[in-house]
């Protein structure tokens, strides 16, 4: 079983159970969106010593939790499972996600620190992503950047340092 050095921030105990079945890993549970100061302190300490990967549900509460953690720990890495891969019988979440999607998300965790502009707004417009949801989602999936609107995608591409040429190449590979 592969050992994950970083501590993974998840929402609840079922997420922890799923991760522990896939990896030798330590987790910090936020207990949903009611994340308190004690949990934030634990996450900050883990970030100093081992690093942190945020893996929250691909839904609105999961995005809110991710935002709270990022405010406290801007150097955290991000792992994203696509919503389509995380739909269970009654809910959407990491515990309901396909095991392969979770492994892929952890292995492709991204860091948004030290962001530099790698793509201009004009280059972004040239990619025909604005107004083309299918293409926008394909870019999100290709680079494991989670989910969001057009502005969020533009921001994340720059945060990770992805260029227009890299996007074109990836889209052509995945057609």
Automatic annotation (TrEMBL):
PROSITE patterns: TOPRIM. GO terms for biological process: rRNA processing. It holds the Pfam family DUF4093. Gene3D superfamilies: 3.40.1360.10. It is found in: Cytoplasm. It catalyses: Endonucleolytic cleavage of RNA, removing 21 and 42 nucleotides, respectively, from the 5'- and 3'-termini of a 5S-rRNA precursor. Its EC number is 3.1.26.8. The keyword Transferase does not apply. Keywords: Cytoplasm, Endonuclease, Hydrolase, Magnesium, Metal-binding, Nuclease, Ribosome biogenesis, RNA-binding, rRNA processing, rRNA-binding. Residues 5-97 form the Toprim domain. SMART domains: TOPRIM. GO terms for molecular function: metal ion binding; ribonuclease M5 activity; rRNA binding. One of its GO terms (cellular component) is cytoplasm. The keyword Transcription does not apply. SUPFAM superfamilies: Toprim domain. Its main location: cytoplasm. It comes from the Bacteria. NCBIfam families: 5S_RNA_mat_M5 (TIGR00334). Required for correct processing of both the 5' and 3' ends of 5S rRNA precursor. Cleaves both sides of a double-stranded region yielding mature 5S rRNA in one step. Belongs to the ribonuclease M5 family. This is Ribonuclease M5.
């Amino acid at each position: 079983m592969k050992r994950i050095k970083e501590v993974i921030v998840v929402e609840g105990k079922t997420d922890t159970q799923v991760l522990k079945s896939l990896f030798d890993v330590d987790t910090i549970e936020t207990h949903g969106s009611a994340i308190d100061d004690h949990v934030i302190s634990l996450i900050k300490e883990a970030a100093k010593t081992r690093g942190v990967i945020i893996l929250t549900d691909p839904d609105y509460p999961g995005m809110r939790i991710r935002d709270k953690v990022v405010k406290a720990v801007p150097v955290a890495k991000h792992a994203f499972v696509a919503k389509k891969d995380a739909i269970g019988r009654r809910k959407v979440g990491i515990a309901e996600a396909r095991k392969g999607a979770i492994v892929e998300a952890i292995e492709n965790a991204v860091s948004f620190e030290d962001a530099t502009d790698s793509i201009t707004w004009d280059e972004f417009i040239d990619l025909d992503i604005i107004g083309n949801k299918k293409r926008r989602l394909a870019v999100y999936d290709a680079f494991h950047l989670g989910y969001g609107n057009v502005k969020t995608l533009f921001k994340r591409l720059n945060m990770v340092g992805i260029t227009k040429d890299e996007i074109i190449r990836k889209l052509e590979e995945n057609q």
